[in-house]
Design a protein that fits this description.
Length: about 375
């Protein structure tokens, strides 16, 4: 074939790939365009030969490779020449399956030809044993030919059944085709229907997973309620408690190492803290109400009274629970002792009653 003439024409045609659209074509050659798609445009070169011009070299290589695999069969157009961006091939004359089925029934004979086509795909080494009905042509003699085969090779993942062909047939013809497959080869039929079911299940699982991630989004919004830094007053209180707790823990630990009685240390800290709190409360009250004349002593004595009132319970205050009884473990983690050290034992207390940390409500 005279490739010089071919190249003279192809140099006058520019094909550009577009995103999710058919290629864009600028044609200064005398050739007539027969059709185009996402990868290239096809021009009539002679009565029997067309030239497919590609938007990029990789697509051209890929289609040429796929066509070359099938040259020994009579299913594909014959290839006459190739350039970096074009393939000259046989013109396929006939009607494509999409058009054909609009007016004709899917007979068992046609289904057999389609199954045979898939077998040929497998035999020649295509990775995707599948094709869209618009790329399958029925020739006047009744045999099939396929075009646009680039996507049958160099693939990572493919469906394990001819999904594209089945879905492109449409609901009714898909059922008819599958019934023909079932009659011909029940095992092949159950394999394909198995994959179809698996695919449906995979879809449902996928939808479930996607709904769950929406739930996560809802929880993310709800969990904002746990935030404490956005309100200055709450944040200050939380921070103060935190520092207070750490200080107490560290102080008790340090004093324990030096051999001090942890209870005494705790009491001293508590008293100190209460003093500080009283000072602050007093200051607050003074700034709020300058008319009320209250001294620090008043507040101190009130706190003392409150404490005594709370513990010198008329119905049976006997002292502090477990005071002085510290396990080795508690001694090490001195702070744990706080649980036992300061809540009153009552004579008639319910043993199951959970005093726990609540027994020390006044602590922060
Ligand atoms: N060998 C051929 N003989 C006759 N017509 C052809 C031939 N090859 C392609 N055509 C016509 O050109 C059109 C575009 O070709 P083709 O489908 O190969 O392009 P494509 O860009 O690879 O398509 P896709 O976007 O599906 O990949 C076809 O629909 C068909 O009408
Ligand atoms: Mg293509």
């Amino acid at each position: 074939m005279d490739t010089k003439e071919l190249e003279k024409y192809t140099s006058k045609i520019t094909v550009r790939n577009m995103e999710n659209e058919d290629v864009e074509v600028v044609n200064y050659s005398p050739l007539t365009m027969m059709g185009k798609g996402r990868q290239g445009a096809v021009f009539q070169y002679s009565d029997d030969i067309c030239i497919k011009i590609f938007g990029n070299e990789e697509d051209c290589e890929r289609e040429h490779y796929a066509l070359s695999l099938g040259q020994q069969t009579d299913l594909f157009p014959k290839v006459y020449a190739k350039g970096p961006l074009y393939i000259a091939m046989e013109i396929i004359r006939g009607v494509d399956l999409r058009e054909y089925l609009q007016s004709q029934p899917l007979t068992e004979e046609l289904s057999m030809k389609l199954i045979d086509l898939l077998v040929t795909f497998k035999e020649i080494g295509y990775e995707r044993i599948d094709h869209h009905k618009r790329q399958i042509f029925i020739l006047p003699e009744g045999n099939l030919k396929v075009i646009d085969v680039a996507r049958t090779v160099w693939r990572d993942r493919v469906y394990p059944y001819p999904r594209k062909l089945l879905t492109s047939l449409g609901k009714e013809n898909k059922e008819i085709f599958l019934s023909h497959v079932q009659a011909l080869h029940p095992e092949l039929y159950s394999e394909w229907t198995h994959y179809i079911e698996m695919e449906e299940q995979a879809r449902q699982i996928c939808q479930k997973i996607m709904t769950e991630s929406t739930d996560k989004e809802t929880l993310k919004n709800k969990s904002k309620k746990l935030l404490t830094t956005n309100e200055q007053k709450i944040y200050t209180g939380q921070l103060e408690s935190l520092v207070h707790k750490v200080f107490k823990e560290e102080w008790v630990k340090a004093m324990l190492v030096q051999g001090y009685d942890p209870d005494k240390v705790m009491d001293t800290i508590e008293q100190h803290m209460e003093k500080l709190t009283s000072k602050e409360t007093l200051k607050e009250k003074e700034s709020k109400n300058t008319d009320t004349e209250k001294t620090e002593e008043d507040v101190k004595s009130k706190n003392k009274n409150n404490k005594e009132e709370k513990y010198s319970d008329k119905d049976g205050f006997l002292g502090y629970r477990n005071k002085g009884r510290i396990s080795e473990n508690d001694r090490y983690y001195g702070f744990r002792n706080e649980r036992y050290s300061e809540y009153p034992i009552k004579e008639k207390e319910n043993k199951n009653k959970n005093y726990g940390r609540k027994g020390k409500k006044n602590r922060r």
